[in-house]
Amino acid sequence: MKLKLLGALLALACSTLYAQTVEVKDAWVRATVPGQKGTGAFMSITAKDGAKLVGASFPVAGVAQVHEMKMDGDIMKMRAMPSLDLPAGQTVQLKPGGYHVMMMDLKQTLPKGSTVPLTLRFKNAKGAESKVELKVPVSTVAPAAAPGAAAGKADDMAAQHGALMH
Ligand SMILES: [Cu+2]
């Protein structure tokens, strides 16, 4: 009997914390050069109870979209996704060459070492929306990446974005 009661109490405690079950880690935005209109934001997102990333906004970008990047034969292609599934308990990586938050119509240059505010919007399984607000560092490579290892890919992606923007 005692165990049953404890279980019920734990379930209650969990449901009251439901609103804050999305965790965003290691976010960064790729630095831009003057005149560049688009770049990408990358991060790891874990939704304990499952959710969808349904939108993003940056004050410094006119448009922000969730994008997917995929090899189609020899050609790297990207497309906008209406939402990104975040399966319960699984960490979904947004990284160069894969998913990313595309920033377009940039209103200013994003120099390395600065930070930009970012708002992410999520929907849980019941359709309730929540927001996560972040201050994201601007960098030329993933902050945790080994120097050199990720740089080649990252440059490819920047070039791809540049090509696709025009
Ligand atoms: Cu993109």
Q: Helical stretch count? A: 2
Calculate Rg over CA atoms.
18 Å
Mean of residue pLDDT?
83
Number of domains: 1
Give the biggest sheet. 10 strands, mixed
Shape label: globular
State the secondary-structure class: alpha+beta
- Fraction of residues in H or I helices: 10-25%
In terms of per-residue confidence, which ranges show pLDDT below 50 for 5 or more consecutive residues? 12-19, 148-154
Number of strands: 10
Beta-sheet strand percentage? over 45%
Describe the structure.
With 166 residues, this protein is an alpha+beta fold. It has one domain: PCu(A)C copper chaperone (Immunoglobulin-like). The protein has 2 helices and 10 strands. It has helices spanning 2-16, 151-165; strands spanning 22-30, 39-47, 51-57, 61-72, 75-80, 84-86, 91-94, 100-106, 115-124, 129-139. Strands 1, 2, 3, 4, 5, 6, 7, 8, 9 and 10 form a 10-stranded mixed beta sheet that branches. The protein is globular, with a radius of gyration of 18 Å. Residues 12-19 and 148-154 have low confidence and may be disordered. The structure holds copper (II) ion.
